[in-house]
């Protein structure tokens, strides 16, 4: 049966299938805690557009099991009966299943250009371009779409938050912040827009404002889905920059990683936060052990190198050397076999070097970590993720340089202080670097205390 979705666009399905599809789209847009349940129902629907979206969402899990499930769904679509819009989504899904994320993005970009109010295509494109580091195209796609949305369309305010995030990643902070704040004012449950403003405040070093901002959204975050954990991760990063390590640890336990998980974003959040704490000498206790099962579960599928680079450190830190070797060998073999697939090219360009460097640092091989991370430093933006997330790799390189007592660590640490003049954390990094190279770190340490540092950390600690 021919009908239209909530955005007035054509799709096949009866009234119940259309209702379910609209709910699926809305749960996706809003990071609803009920998304997984809605996906299960939509996967059984005869509506081809629902099957295509469920397939795309499954692929975001970046596991072999999810790939198989998405392939099965695609096989259930009766391709001969699709309208033009459905055919385009179907083609994008099949490209994504084949690992051709660039091809899938280009198909979606053409669809957004032709039909700017196709919010499914726009949102999928937004995240795909982000994961590929194609920030200018992120900005342009949402900017063009905004010009064609009228006020009667559902969830129009979300576009402001999407544009806010894209502009932030393009370092256009003054334009990004008011858009994100306006989106949250229009819809306080819009976690992507809450997240966008969080990035702006992080990049500008406005950590006290960031802490207040996230606390203002505490209710929707408490009621949100798994993505809320990533916003709580941002709050923990604010705490770190302010020297509030006990608060960051408490947040890790309560909201960032409250229970063992196999979900990719949850694991990368956890690895990143524990790394950042240990790099400046904080004792994280036995928390690494809670990551072991999840990280091992994720091995064997390398479509998302950004995550693999986190897992490699965790495996090294957990002394799982056999699993680390298997991860690195698997990444290398897959990058050669997959050849022209975007993720394989990223692995060859920088992903393998970053993963080797992170794994070496986790194992305590600081010289290998230095050489591998230095080799990749100018190109690891290709891994995707945000500037704030990729700062983990910069911190890892600095930690390795300090451990090797390399003079470059002073320059690296000084750059952090210049970029974060009000950060106690940056001053402690500088104190570590000066101490490691035989200087007097007391001045930097005193400045950190004056700015709010309260810990009596041993400067020679830190993995």
Give a quick precis of the structure.
The chain is an all-alpha fold. 69% of the residues lie in helices and 1% in strands.
Describe this structure in words.
The chain has a two-stranded antiparallel sheet with strand order 1-2. Helices cover 69% and strands 1% of the residues. Among the domains are: 145 residues, Serine Threonine Protein Phosphatase 5, Tetratricopeptide repeat, CATH 1.25.40; 64 residues, Serine Threonine Protein Phosphatase 5, Tetratricopeptide repeat (Alpha Horseshoe); 46 residues, no CATH class. The chain has 463 residues and is an all-alpha fold. The radius of gyration is 22 Å and the shape is globular. The C terminus is likely disordered. It has 25 helices and two strands. Helix 9 packs parallel to helix 11.
């Amino acid at each position: 049966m021919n009908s239209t979705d909530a955005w007035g666009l054509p799709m096949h399905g009866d009234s119940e299938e259309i209702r379910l599809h609209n709910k699926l789209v809305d749960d996706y847009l809003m990071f609803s805690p009920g998304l997984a349940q809605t996906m299960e129902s939509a996967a059984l629907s005869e509506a081809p557009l629902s099957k295509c979206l469920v397939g795309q969402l499954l692929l975001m899990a970046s596991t072999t099991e999810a790939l198989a499930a998405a392939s099965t769904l695609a096989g259930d679509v009766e391709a001969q009966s699709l309208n033009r819009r459905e055919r385009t989504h179907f083609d994008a899904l099949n490209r994504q299943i084949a690992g051709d994320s660039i091809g899938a993005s280009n198909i979606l970009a053409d669809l957004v250009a032709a039909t700017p109010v196709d919010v499914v295509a726009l949102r999928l494109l937004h995240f795909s371009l982000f994961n590929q580091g194609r920030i200018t195209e992120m900005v342009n796609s949402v900017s063009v779409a905004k010009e064609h949305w009228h006020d009667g369309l559902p969830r129009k305010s979300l576009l402001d938050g999407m544009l806010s995030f894209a502009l932030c990643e393009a370092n256009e902070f003054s334009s990004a912040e008011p858009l994100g704040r306006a989106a949250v004012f229009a819809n306080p449950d819009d976690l992507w827009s809450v997240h966008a403003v969080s990035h702006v405040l992080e990049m500008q070093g406005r950590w006290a404002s960031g802490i207040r901002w996230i606390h203002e959204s505490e209710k929707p975050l408490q009621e949100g889905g798994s993505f809320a954990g990533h916003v709580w991760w941002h709050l923990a990063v604010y705490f770190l920059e302010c020297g509030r390590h006990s608060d960051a640890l408490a947040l890790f336990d309560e909201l960032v990683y409250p229970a063992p998980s196999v979900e990719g974003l949850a694991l990368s959040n956890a690895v990143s936060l524990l790394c950042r704490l240990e790099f400046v000498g904080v004792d994280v206790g036995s928390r690494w052990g809670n990551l072991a099962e999840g990280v091992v579960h994720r091995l064997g599928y390398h479509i998302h190198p950004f995550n693999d680079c986190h897992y490699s450190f965790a495996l090294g830190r957990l002394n799982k050397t056999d699993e680390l070797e298997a991860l690195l060998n698997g990444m290398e073999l897959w990058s050669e076999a997959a050849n022209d697939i975007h993720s394989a090219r990223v692995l060859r360009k920088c992903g393998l070097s970053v993963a080797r460097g992170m794994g070496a640092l986790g194992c305590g091989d600081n010289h290998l970590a230095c050489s591998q991370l230095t080799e990749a430093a100018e190109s690891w933006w290709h891994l995707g993720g945000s500037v704030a997330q990729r700062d983990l790799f910069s911190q890892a390189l600095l930690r390795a340089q300090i451990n090797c007592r390399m003079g470059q660590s002073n320059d690296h640490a000084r750059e952090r202080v210049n970029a974060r003049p009000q950060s106690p954390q940056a001053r402690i990094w500088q104190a570590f670097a000066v101490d490691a190279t035989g200087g007097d770190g007391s001045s930097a340490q005193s400045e950190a205390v004056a700015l709010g540092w309260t810990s009596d950390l041993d400067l020679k600690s830190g993995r």
